[in-house]
Amino acid sequence: MTDLVKENILLNAVTSAFKIEGKVIRDRRVEVHADKNTVSSILLFAKKQLGYIHMNHMTCIDWIEQGEFELVYTIYHPVDKLTLFVKTRIDREIPVMENIDTIWDHANTYEREMREMFGIEFPGLVGEHDFILEDWDQIPPMRKEFDTHKYAAETFYTRPGREDAKDVREELSKRSGTVVPDFAKKYSRE
Amino acid sequence: MENDKNSQKIVDYIGNFARKHSLFVLAYGTGCGAIEIPATMTSRYDAERFGIRGAATPRQADVLLITGYLSTKTLKRVIRVYEQMQEPKYVIGFGSCTVNGGMYYDSYNTINGLDQYIPVDVYINGCMPRPEAVISGFVKLQELIMAGKANNGEKYRENLEHYRSNQKKIIKNWKMPDYNW
Ligand code: SF4
Q1: CB–CB of A14/A84 below 8 Å?
Q2: Would you say residue B116 lies in a domain?
Q3: Is the Cβ–Cβ distance between B156 and B118 less than 8 Å?
Q4: Of A41, B106, B117, B135, which sits 20 to 30 A from B165 (CA to CA)?
Q5: Helix ranges (DSSP H) in chain B
Q6: pLDDT of residue A132
Q7: Which of the four pLDDT bands, split at 50, 70 and 90, describes residue A136?
Q8: Is the CB of B69 under 6 A from ligand 1?
Q9: Which of B99, B116, B172 sits opposite A135 (nearest CB)?
Q10: Closest-CA distance of chain A to residue B13, Å
Q11: Pocket test for ligand 1, best of B128, B130, B134 (most atoms within 8 A of CB)
């Protein structure tokens, strides 16, 4: 096990510069939690000062119970081989986030996808509104309140013959004599 | 076409015999199933001994092979491709996803049941079907052709209203050329 020296140096550099929280996840993985207004400055700082010149990925998680979207920016240092996750939370009701495709051009693609799949607006984002979906007129499909099962049953023709399909989770738990945990029950067929 | 003795006319027999042995396939590689096509076509399974081979464009193809799930966006392209094909034309649905949605039955963006939108001659089930199954599906299609029962192009033309209404239910913004039937 390494002693995580590089990781702690990076964590200190970012957290002390912006007075934010963060932690070392494991070797080569560091995460920091930022306010949505400071994210772009952190990314710019990491890119220009620390050498995190590559953005791997940018993604969104829907925390419907807490009424928030979490955005995760994954950036990478090709020499130190360190990955930094910058995480931020935005309001689910007014999902607006700063557009960062001036820092990395390819953020444009991720932002367009998030605009389509989660309905997050990025002011100043240039690009067609239709990205992967065509003529979509429902709420954005990756939001958790979107009932994909119901939508599919209403929109697409269902061939008879699936009625006696067994629920895999329940069948397996019956066979092995374990109990299905509560949080999994709402995904069961019945 | 049948003659008064309830069997095929001799010209149809000859025509069907020729069609059966030269199936030009347009493999519309959607979904995961497309990965089985190279295996089917190359030396191990050698589908060409049945007269099955690839075609470059829809207008040169006899068989449209749909190899898996179709998103609504792809369905639009598939319909256009299908309508461009010359008759006689056949469709093979490949994999559970084309039969009833397969594991994507509750997805917001993939269709369940290809035969609601274009007529399908042969379904090959399996997730995904092995090359043996693919070849057996083609052999089944050859039997149908030989018996003169594979005339779905005609069926599509006759029931165009039905298919169009199903297609338009999915494809809301219908901006497609009308081919002259
Ligand atoms: S039937 Fe299975 S292998 Fe074929 S496209 Fe669907 S999921 Fe993929």
Answers
A1: yes
A2: yes
A3: yes
A4: B106
A5: 10-20, 36-41, 72-84, 96-100, 131-146, 152-158, 160-170
A6: 86
A7: confident
A8: yes
A9: B172
A10: 35
A11: B128
- A window 15-44, beta carbon within 8 A of B: none
| CATH of residue B52 | 3.40.50.12280
Of A132, A135, A152, the CB nearest to B106: A152
Q: How confident is the model at residue B128 (pLDDT cuts 50, 70, 90)?
A: confident
CATH for A5-146 (3.30.460.80, 3.40.50.10860, 3.40.630.30, 3.20.20.70): 3.30.460.80
In this prediction, does ipTM exceed 0.85?
no
For the segment A146-157, the average pLDDT, to the nearest whole number, is 87
Domain interval for residue B113: 2-170
Report the domain count for chain B: 1
CB contact under 8 A, B113 and A134: no
Cα-to-centroid distance, B106 and ligand 1 (Å): 14
Name the closest residue on chain B to residue A134, using Cα atoms: B73
Q: Tell me whether residues B116 and A157 touch, CB distance under 8 A.
A: yes
Given a cut of 60, whether residue B1 has pLDDT beyond it is no
First to last CA, chain A: 47
Contact A156/B170, CB-based, under 8 Å? Answer: yes
Q: What is the dihedral of CA B24, B28, B32, B33, to 10 degrees?
A: -20
Q: Write the DSSP assignment of A119-180 as a string of letters.
A: --B-TT--S-S-SSSSS--SS-TTSTTS-HHHHHHHHS---S--TTPPPHHHHHHHHHT---
pLDDT tens digits along A52-106: 999 999 999 999 889 999 999 999 999 989 999 999 999 999 999 999 989 999 9
Domains of chain A by residue range? 5-146, 160-190
Instruction: Pick from A144, A157, A189 the residue to mutate for testing the B interface (most B CBs within 10 Å).
Output: A157
Decide if B24 is inside a domain.
yes
End-to-end CA distance of chain B: 20
Angle, CA B63 vertex, CA B60 and CA B65 arms, to 5°: 120
A158 Cβ under 8 Å from any chain B Cβ: yes
